[in-house]
Amino acid sequence: MDTVALVPAAGRGTRLGAGVPKALVRVLGHSLLSRAVRGLLDSGSVGHVVVAAAPDQLDPMGREVRDLGERVHVVPGGGERTDSVRAALRAADRLVPSAEVVLVHDAARAFTPARVIRDVVAAVERGAPAVVPTLSVADTIKRVDDEGVVAETVDRSRLRTVQTPQGFTVDVLREAYGAAGEVATDDAGLVERLGYPVETVAGHTNALKVTTSFDLAVAEAVLAAGPV
Ligand code: CTP
Ligand code: MG
Description:
Elements: E1 3-8, E2 26-27, E3 30-31, H1 32-42, E4 48-53, H2 58-65, E5 72-76, H3 81-95, E6 101-104, H4 114-125, E7 130-136, E8 141-144, E9 150-154, E10 160-162, E11 166-169, H5 170-178, H6 187-193, E12 199-202, H7 213-224
Parallel strand pairs: 1-4, 1-6, 4-5, 7-12
Antiparallel strand pairs: 2-3, 6-11, 7-10, 7-11, 8-9
């Protein structure tokens, strides 16, 4: 099946505070954007990539992916992440009409191992409408009340943190984004609301999202350790 990956990269990177949009921040010489897009293509499971860039960053982001060939497209994103994904999905309908599987992958998760990408695509190809990579929770989790006093210790055995790429059939993601004005912290959240089952595959600690400068330091260590 033809697979297109949507890469929302239109955020400002406020929490990182690097002075440039986060996707343009370089780690050991290469930007998060170019690393994320190259990782998708190199997995062998992704045919095309549509990057959503802030409208004033189309040129610099286009330059970052120019070397990666004609299978990579850069289009204008929107004010919220959901707006950027919606814009990229619309562009994908036009640019890659043959795609049946769609991934949504944050530029900020630039170090995701190929195995994770391949597992997500394979699960959709086997018939899952939606798939997310997850990790078990290592810390003890407590729920607190309005005053910050512990109300309960939550059983963490069934809790998972969720990464990207998240995979969908194109029809299901289109339906999820069809409802105007929807907001969710992840794309699978929109699909859950429609009642579709969301399967999980094993994520990887290297698929961390670069949010703060601490994460950048971790990312450098991950790269220095070599491929997984
Ligand atoms: N994103 C996007 N369009 C937006 C906001 C975010 O495409 N309007 C993208 C970001 O570029 C990033 C991903 O969504 O790849 C996850 O968002 P986040 O980690 O929050 O990145 P930023 O919004 O850039 O960071 P911050 O919230 O610190 O400003
Ligand atoms: Mg943000």
